[in-house]
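hey so i finally got around to running both of the ones u sent me last week. sorry it took forever, my laptop kept dying halfway thru and i had to restart like 3 times lol. anyway pasting them below in the order u listed, first the sequence line then the structure token line for each. didnt double check formatting much so if smth looks off just lmk and ill redo it

first one:
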Amino acid sequence: MSFYAFGQAVYRGRWAVLAAWAVLLAICAPLAPRAGTVLKVGGFSNPGIESARARAALASALDYQSSVLLVLFQHPEWQATDPRFLAAVEQALADVRAMPTVSRVVDYRTNPRQIGTDGHLAYVLITLNLEPDDFLRSLPEFEARLRPTPLRTIVAGPPVFYRDIEQTTERDLRRAELISFPFALVALLVVFGSVVAAGVPVALGGTSVVVALALLFGLARFTDLSIFVLNMATLLGLGLGIDYSLFVVSRFREELRKRPVGEAVAMTVATAGRAVMFSGLTVLVGLLALTMFDFMFLRSLGVGGSLVVGISVLAALTLLPALLGVLGQRIDALPIRPLQRRPRHQGVWARLAAAVMAHPFRVLVPTLLLLLLLGSPFLHVRFSSPDASILPAAAPSRQGYELLRRGFSQAQLDPILVAVRTDGNVLAPQNLDRLYDFSRAIARDPRVARVESIVDLDPRITREMYKLLYNQPDGLGDAYVTQTVARLARGNTTLMQVYSTASPIAAESQDVVRLIRALGPAYGLDVLVDGGAAEVLDVVSRLYSEFPRAVAVIVVTTYVVLFLLFRSVVLPLKAIVMNTLSILASYGALVWVFQEGHLAWLLGFTPLGFVEASLPIVMFCLLFGVSMDYEVFLLTRVKEAYDTLGDNTRAVAEGLERSGRIITSAALIIVVVSLSFVAAEIVLIKALGLGVALAVFLDATIVRALLVPATMRLLGEWNWWAPSLLARRHPRSVESLSSRESGA
């Protein structure tokens, strides 16, 4: 069935289509608000990377728990060693110690390194014998059991971080919706000039979001989905839903001036609807590429985002034409200003088209240089994984993070964890020899502050003394040694803790991880390395080893889709290059703003000093398709004009003139929706919103209005070239406008 025939069918069954969508919306409306209750936090790691395997090995062999709670205590006057301070800590923890789920408590009297440098801050480590999901559910009870004391008390640690992420994400989502809907409506009122025409895209975008969130609620019961998919669903559902309906409604109003309502609906589906279908495919390709990454965070964004795109396209091809068929001429009802019918070849877009066609080389060079300049900061990007610094200052985990950062060195708080496995018992003399030499080789590196292990109890103990100590028939004798060995060694596995002189995200710490991994086999030891530095290294390495494959899939598939649409070898290649330029410019902004901290005072965040590792990947997969929307809508108009006129220069000018205002308006909506996420409290969401807004703004202005038409003017007839064999295999799938009108 052709798009024109499909449009006729939708028009004939318009009331049935509207009824079906009304039933669907009634079913989904109660479920959509519950989507956040079944989504997961975390998902930034991968069970296959070495740091995760080390964590699993330590948990299995030593019952080591990496997810522990830190209870921080601070007093402005009392030292941590003051009896009053000690008594207050005991009072605070009295009920916590009695919890059946508490398996271990390590206070600062056992480990003096848990006292801050100023002496007024100390922390206690609490290990709970719970699964990660149960950890989150147990937090309210844990916090309720902490008794009030004169000390400032803050609970921190990974479980608190994940809870804060969940709660803040939901607040960010509500805030974004409150900001984006009114601003999008105002922008649409300006574009269309009537309340009804402006209300249709908002209604379609809202419907897409509600249905998508309800489906995510159902899908999350069968597979893990990240909490961040809420933000992706809202951004895409509102942005693309309004975007697609803007193009469809605009084309419908244009067709309605020339033909009856039924024919106008069919012609709109055959032109703008067809472009929506192909542009939706390009967005879908990019988002599906995220499912190729073995990280729950990225995979869920790909699954959830693809679901939203599918719903938006389906609504634009069924619900929207049916609604337009019912409204008919009433689409322009309730005007807020006189509706102007500007003659062709007038206005700013006509003048811009004429200027670009007259001076294509003068337009091409400066715009290309500007985009490259904007992208240049990305040359010195630093990647890392998210920590509590991405949260707002009022979040408990952020407050705990800041206290720890000021009171302790970051390297002290996040050691490199080395899971060492030996042939036979680790306390056997030959294995102690290997461990002793291995530890000393690590400690000799100037980037290592110290090593803690069963062969590093005291610098005065020699190799032979360790052998004698661990060969005691009375079970080691010394209580401290007994406790240390029970905590750090069991069977053929032992834990070494290596403290770097630098922070976990620093290159020096990651070099220490590489050194440890290289030294292990040299000493006959099976070594797995975990800790913040190791995880950052492993995550970044795995992400960017998989990224080229995802890029290749996106580029090749997009090329094929665009070739089938335009039957040109050159145009898809040009479109891919143009998209890449706008994305690179947004990458540069990420580094300049969030890594280097420019405009932090305006956007309300603390500079990270890095770019979250997955963010450029998410932005590429998302933006490549979203930016291609405008390429598709522009080139569709250019192609229509070329099929009619047969002249490349005139076709490019006419295509720009006809689509320029609508593309800019559509981009304005996406920018407004994206910028609403800049108000988010989570820096990761703030960065995504700003990156998308900037890329779309550049794409719809500099790239589509200047760079693309200038390039097409210079390429001339080469724009439409295709080998004769391919042209025969893929005949025109869209009739010329004149033939379609006669067919109507």
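and the second one:
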Amino acid sequence: MANAIRTALFAAALVLVVIVPPSAMASADPGVPTTGATVLGAGFSGKPFVLDGDMVIETIGLYESIRDYQDATNPDWVAWYDHALGGLWEHVLHDDGLLVALRGDLRPGFEVVDLSDPGNPVGLADVDANLFESGWLGDQALIVSGEDFLLAYDLVDPTEPVFASFRVLGLHAQSRWFSEWNSRLYIIDHDATLRVFDITTPLQPVDLGTVSLAGDRIDAMVAGDGVLYALVAGGGALDLVTYDLTDPLDPRETSRTNHTAAAGAVGLQLCAADELLLAGSSDALIRAYDVSDPTRLVEGYELPLVAEHLDVSDNRVFVMTGQDVRIFPRTAAAEQPGAPVVRSRLPRLQTIDGDGPVQIGQLHGDRNLIVPIDASNPRHPKVGAPFDTGLRGAFYYADDIGLMVTLNGSFQLVDLSVPLEPDWLGSVDLPRVYFFRAALTGEVAVLETGSIDVELRFYDLTDPMEPHFRTKVYDYGLQDIEGDIMVCSRSDRIRIYDVSDLDDPRFVRQVFFDDAVQEVHLHQYHAYVLVRDLSGARRIHSVRLTDPAYPVVLGSVELNHNAGELDAHDGRLYTYGYHICQIIDVADPEHLEIVAEFPAYGHTGPGLAFNGDVTTVGGWLVSMRDDGLSVSAAPDQIPTVASRLEPAYPNPLNPSTNIAFTVGSAQELTLAVHDVRGRLVAHLATGRFEAGRHTVRWNGEDSTGLPVASGVYLVRLHGKGLDASGTVTVVK
């Protein structure tokens, strides 16, 4: 009687929860339109769900990447789907171009996405409902389950899912492993008991009853052609069992083989594709089975992996374990597959910066670490080995120098002239102050610090191994520095400094605005000032600073998003915030024009890095092409680090040496000599070099014409898309 009352009360409550009023069921936000820019790819990898052929959608919960894995070593990136505002995706169902994603408990419910064109996923509906841990999709219907209920939704109009029916089930907190054959739906009801539904009319599934199997519990199951495969635990072992489904209410066991005898092993994954069946368990065992004869399973190859997720495409086997997705070639069960391609889930970045194919990011979860980002192939940016700066704090970058500043004002300089091989430079310890903000060029660092009074401290970086304190100014609101100009801000103004003399920075003028100043970025002797009015609207003003004593406000443009950061590159100003990036053409600062808009970093992290016309957005490394700039080179044409510079000859230098290099296409390059501490010794050549081989002679003199001392020197050739280095020894 108590159980009956509980069931009735639960059913009544369930109706109230599930039958969501129209106001709570909204069409999905189509997201930020991409105009004037092209999404190229994303570096992140996640749980792979096979869509069709070798097409896969990889989900990390907030962002999804669609890739074609015909070539597993270099999969073709197809599309990126950003639903960061919609909640975490935990499980994906797919049928006939329609995708349903079940969300986690942070915002339970589901989303419906049109994937008829995988290159252009379109959000159709976003439903707030119960927490669903598994389900089935087909015939324009969605059937999902929770711990003790089953619900059906009508997807005839996928933009407006309509609740159709519900059923009460046995209590089962794990996946029910929906398996369908011949209009019969088999799910785990509880323990080793199946529940069977007739889904001839899927919106009104008919409960045909329960069936108990031989065992203590069912861990996983999947339907084949007229059979059901199940990982069944019992008697201290985990067995793979085949059931004949000729009589849907009386599944008949036709074969049973021991998958593992490991005590306490749990079945984690089961996946069937034609004559191949893959079973994974918690004791780090994935075993392949030949199921060409379902009544006699034949054991095949083994993979010593814990499969958190398994899926099989036409030519690939996908295994997710830990933070890695391992992509094996699909073979017959009797044939051991070759070595997998391993794609690791990328760490979240706090920020990214740089100009060229190899860029620099700061890790979000471990902020003392910086990592090189190889963006030479913008469709697949990759993260290199981390470098520990020794300090945990805010990271700044300019002209091949990194600056890591801690809260107490201490800072460490890092040599990033060869981004794949960072090295320490000088450091400063200021234990009795607090750090607020920094601005950096290749020669000057300014820190806004304070204990009682806030001050701007100027450091000369001419010798980056020994940063030299020059002076301080009592001011605050540091924004940016470029050349001889520094800008600070107040609530309604910017304050302009002449810093041509680091021993005597001079305040020269301030410019007032009607609205609150949020951010300032200096670019080509213009200040671009982001302001916000009382309504929250944002606007960019351009201010000419060629003569900082007489600043001139030239033009402005209104933004349509909550920008919070500014950056500039190649005559473009990039404004980005919580979820959007807008690109403004500033070639004519009097007439600012918004030329592009695309989804930015969402919840991930700020920062932009540039490689020609390609922008790498921080966080999950999404790459965008600015369609208004010249088309960048194909990935295999982009020079990579240390690939174009020949060894100096003769070496050691006696009395001179020839330095030869080859460039693939005409470009601006600089050839210079540095000592082992990174200090510039001599500029050997600067200018535009045509495609082909070039030779420059160095006679062992510094930039003043004096002979250098004996020792090892670094020869560096660098320009856009090329950063190569070698060594030469001087012996006297």
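quick thing i noticed on the 2nd:
The helical segments are 2-18.
anyway thats it, ttyl
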